[in-house]
Amino acid sequence: MSTIQNLNSFDPFADTGDSEAQPTNYIHIRIQQRNGRKTLTTVQGVPSEYDLKKILKVLKKDFACNGNIVKDEELGEVIQMQGDQRVKVSEFLTTQLQLPKKNIKIHGF
């Protein structure tokens, strides 16, 4: 008669210590539908060492669109811009601010 092995000593869901899912601060670029063909582009998660007001001023001038900074309880400060500026914002963040492209997530459509 074989004995039943006790597996209670090993917890398969225990924290092993290797934090493969470390919190990398992603920058999320999203698009929101307004009314009709109008859209909003939102940028959240920009590192706090950057001045959002200066970034927004440059983005508005370069992309010829309006925008503002919205303070959100959960997400912190979020940049909002008129129109679909996702690709342009992504290029701006990688070229001008030298942010790694792997930290930028583009969402929508």
> What is the CA-CA span between the terminal residues?
61 Å
Instruction: From the alpha carbons, calculate the radius of gyration and give it in angstroms.
Output: 21 Å
Record field, number of beta strands:
5
Number of helical segments with 4 or more residues: 2
CATH architectural group: 2-Layer Sandwich
For the record, the CATH class is Alpha Beta
Biggest sheet overview = 5 strands, mixed
Question: Strand portion, in percent?
Answer: 25-35%
The shape, in one word, is elongated
Please write the string of helix (H) and strand (E) elements: EEHEEHE
- Category from helices, strands and their pairing: alpha+beta
The largest beta-sheet arranges its strands as 3-4-2-1-5
Percent helix range: 10-25%
The CATH homologous superfamily is named SUI1-like domain
CATH topology, by name, is Translation Initiation Factor Eif1
Count of individual domains: 1
Describe this structure in words.
- GO terms for molecular function: ribosomal small subunit binding; translation initiation factor activity; translation initiation factor binding.
- InterPro entries: SUI1, SUI1_dom_sf, SUI1_euk.
- It comes from Suhomyces tanzawaensis NRRL Y-17324.
- Residues 1-21 are annotated as: Disordered.
- Residues 27-97 form the SUI1 domain.
- The chain has 109 residues and is α+β, with helices and mostly antiparallel strands.
- The protein has a single domain (27-107), classed as Translation Initiation Factor Eif1, CATH 3.30.780.10.
- 20% of the residues lie in helices and 27% in strands.
- The chain contains two helices and five strands; from the N terminus they run ββαββαβ.
- It has helices spanning 52-63, 86-95; strands at 27-33, 39-44, 67-72, 76-82, 104-106.
- The chain has a five-stranded mixed beta sheet, with helices on one face.
- Strand 1 (27-33) and strand 2 (39-44) form a beta hairpin.
- It is elongated and about 75 Å long.
- The mean pLDDT is 85.
